[in-house]
Amino acid sequence: MKNRIRILATSDLHGVIHPNRSQDNKELNQGMAKVHTLISSLRDENTIVIDNGDVLEGSPLSFYHYTHNYNEISPMTKAMNTIDYDFVNVGNHDFNYGRTALMTHLDNLGAPCITSNVSYKEKPLGPTYVIEQVAGKKVAIFGIVTQSVPLFEDHEHIKNLRFRSAYHTAVKTVDLLKRLERPDYIICVYHGGFERDLETGIPTEDLTKENEGYRILKEIPGIDVLIAGHQHQPLCGKAFNTTYVQPGSNGAYVACVDIYTDTKTIDATLLENDMDASSEILQRVKEESDQCEAWLNEVIGHTDMDLTIQDALNDRLNKTQLATLFNLALKDATNADLCATNLFGYAKGFKADITRRDIINSYLHPNLVVVKKITGKQLRAYLEKNAEFFTIEHEYITASPYFNQAPKLYNYDMIDGIEYTIKVSNDFGSRIISMTYNNEEIQDDQEFTIALNHYRALGGGGFDVLRPLPYVQRTNKTMVDILTNYIQAKGNISFAPVHNIHVIR
Fold first, then answer.
1. pTM for the structure as a whole
2. Which of 44, 133, 204, 352 could connect to 403 by a Cys-Cys bridge, CB 3.0–4.6 Å?
3. Three-class secondary structure of residue 292 per DSSP
4. 356 by DSSP, 3-state: which?
5. Long-range contacts made by residues 118-125, C-beta under 8 angstroms, separation at least 24?
6. pLDDT per residue over 457-475, tens digit each?
């Protein structure tokens, strides 16, 4: 259309190409193959197609690729090249497999990277901004990613990378554009989300600067469109004279922003991805997908126990033995005094025949395992933070909502090696009423070693107490590696259930 500029945007695709869910092969409205069909139906000569990061990690196929074909072009790179993106931003999870994996992706991608607040040895990943002439108008585009990446990521993966403030980069870029370029429209592509309710301004999370979308909207005039991400929430609207979109995750939605140059109006919608899957993309990734499927279906062990997840809340209230198994594997690999694991919301656990698929679908993320030293006082603070996961509603214990959002199921750890009691009716900071090691109360100055994933060890999820703890061991192995090795070595998984965590009203 002559008087319309169209922007199509995806975000947080997380390696999902196929529409079928790995756990049960159920077809969903998701995946790059369907995204291709949807974008192709909407694209014209006045369209700009943008991805907002978190591409390389998050699916069994991505995990397989980076554990078997690391130096080859990833399936996601192939899929994105088929879609023919115009620009890409990077997300925090794009650093999960290290800089080499990220640069292999970017170097083989047909679209330029526009991330401007990240640099490697002082060389930015992308330009300060780009200028596009579309429908006779000057459109400026710039990309930024949450500066909190170093709080999530293993330091080796981001060595020599510098992450500058997303907010302050946006302030300077918009000012520069107004003074030097005077574009008709400014588009900010931000791999970060909104820290406050967009209508009331009430905080919706801890204000750590991980997400600063609300602040950008409120305090930086001149941005016409903000494309957000990171939080996996489908959002669309207008605030402080800026149109915003956040396209959810896994390709479930594509954001469509239409700028009408004659009326100077901007319409934004989120389009559900209910199209047919593109055979072109599926064919391009078929060889590696077939290899991955065969690998996932390998049986690596057996169990006569019930290690399935039936109820997300109950299996945290009454510690599931799947968590015990995870911690037994950690203990075997590290010999740490204490072991801590979380369970992701998608975890389904293991049936009698344990396959690689079961493991990947229970712990998909490539979190490295580390061992740190912790005192009794620090351990209590760690457990108190964990205890905040629970609340009481109508006299029953339930999971606390994350401000006004759904509970973050992955943000609750279960620790083995000690026995402890959480009293949910007590105030925050005084919920741990018992904490023993070898049947004796733990003293503040007592020292332990604790094995846990690197995300949590770096303070991820608000566990700041763990960040300064000294390292004892860095395994360079993921939880998937450790769990797989343990199950293969045992052959048959059978152990006495451990009920060391007591959650009471």
1. 0.91
2. 204
3. helix
4. helix
5. 118/90, 118/145, 118/149, 118/161, 118/162, 118/163, 118/164, 119/161, 119/162, 119/164, 120/160, 120/161, 120/162, 121/160, 122/162, 125/90
6. 999 888 999 999 999 999 9
